[in-house]
User: Which sequence fits this backbone?
């Protein structure tokens, strides 16, 4: 009986979370749908700006990892250790090596 109650409580909790998450998304979409043409263009520009900025930062982080891996290879560190430190895969590091 306790297991059944625990499962039903968990299902109810997950359902509430699911509803909240998707209801919030619907609410956001409804708010955006009410925008005027100028507000919508401004919104689209801000989303594009955010995505561009995030992609630039992600690219810079990845390039930094590669530069660090090159320096570590030059110092003679093992590939496995470099992979652990930089969070690059061993295959990616071996590509850099060649």
Assistant:
């Amino acid at each position: 009986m306790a297991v059944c109650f625990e499962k039903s409580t968990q299902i109810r909790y997950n359902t509430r979370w699911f509803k909240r998450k998707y209801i919030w998304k619907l609410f956001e979409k409804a708010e955006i749908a009410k925008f005027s043409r100028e507000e919508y263009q401004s919104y689209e520009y801000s989303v594009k700006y955010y995505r561009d900025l995030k992609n630039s930062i992600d690219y810079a982080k990845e390039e930094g990892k590669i530069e660090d891996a090159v320096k570590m290879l030059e110092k003679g560190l093992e590939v496995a250790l470099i992979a652990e430190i930089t969070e690059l895969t061993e295959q990616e590091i071996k590509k850099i090596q060649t």
Observations:
- The CA atoms of residues 55 and 80 lie 28 Å apart.
- Confidence is low (pLDDT under 50) at residues 1-7.
- The radius of gyration is 24 Å.
- DSSP finds four helices and no strands in the chain.
